[in-house]
Input
Amino acid sequence: MTYFKSFLFFLITLLSVNSSKEVLNSRILSYEVNLNTQQLDFYWKDVQGNTYGSLKNLKAGVEKEGKELVFAMNGGMYLKDRSPQGLFIQQGITKAPIDTLKGGKTNFYLHPNGVFYITNDNKATITTTSNFTSSPAIKYATQSGPMLLINDKIHPKFTEGSSNLHIRNGVGILPNGNLLFAMSKERINFYDFACFFKDKGCKNALYLDGFVSRTYLPSRYWEQLDGNFGVIIGETRRKRN
Output
């Protein structure tokens, strides 16, 4: 009887944990990118020097180049003029310098914050700002904050059960090296959002932005084309005939 009760308790606990994960997964839209087989780029301004701003404008822009927008998401915080807040590297050129300030009232300064970057050989890294090292091998980089996961640990300033709820989006790196982009479909706190990436096996993940977040992912019937952003991260492919 004791063995049966123990087994029953274990089974109930397991089902409860799996149910919690399923609920969390249902609240979040996610998309995986393999940099070796998918074309991912960071955008800010078009060839005329105008900020794309919205996912609609980016979609129209890439279509003029004979491409199809497969996926897009705002890619980090921005200033009032929609210029990137913190480091932004595009095609190997630094368009905005890294921000190492310790003070600040926005989520960007909820330290440790971090940098998400991709090298010319399609290797992605997410690291804390203090550990970031500039290199000519970096093709794209965006700085944001706070970090969601730091070496498999949830950000120390996040509180389980927090009532600080917002729409949120972020990016993590999966065990196979692929990128995992995610945006909550409803308001969520930092702790639960970080748990999503942790449950997927990510060791490091970075928060990109909050209530302004938008995602374009027609393959999942999710097409938010509005917005007024700075940096946008997008996947494209050549239009099919």
Remarks:
- The two ends are 67 Å apart (CA to CA).
